[in-house]
Amino acid sequence: MAVIKKILIIEDDISLSNGISLALKDSEITFVQVKSLCSAKQNVESVHFDLIILDINLPDGNGLDFLKELRKSSAVPVIILTANDMETDVVTGLEFGADDYITKPFSLMILRARVNARLRNVHSTASDMIKFDGFLFSFNKMEFLKYDIPIELSKTEQKLLRILIENRGNTVTRAQLIDLIWTDGAEYVDENALSVTIKRLRDKLEDTPSSPQYIKTVYGIGYTWVVK
Q: What distance in Å separates the CA atoms of residue 150 and residue 137, rounded to the nearest whole number?
């Protein structure tokens, strides 16, 4: 059975958005088209997408800010599609986590080729799935298992786990974790919130939470996911 792939198009120009979906039309692809970052955020929180096509200049904000936030919790491929064609714009987009950058006007044939390349890469490497020591973590699908038993994680716990896993073997400071996890613009976050989240994650993942094998405290600095 063919795997149906989902693409999110974030573009406020309806004609262009429709043109993109028409050019990419395929029996194995479904599209969600939104005109604003607000709608985009609502969708990525509830739907697993295989690819996002993102405009930068949107009515309610800058697509780069959306991308920067997205990259803290998701590795879904993102292709930026924008009229901003300065070299510095391209570099900034790629540094913020874009997988590709296409400037307007563009060839729909080239867009299709690049989209297909990204989709092939996603499904050939299963890039968001991490499997080791009886754990299986899929951050895009928000599926977490230990010895094939599902584990329910809150959004905050997912963010913390993602950061620790992506930096496993290295120490992440408390300040870095607080800055990366709590990004709602609050000027002050009680450090106790991090300690509580660490404890909850250990309770769900560790065999003996009071003597953790994986999520280790580096006293006076922060935390690390131990590589075995």
A: 10
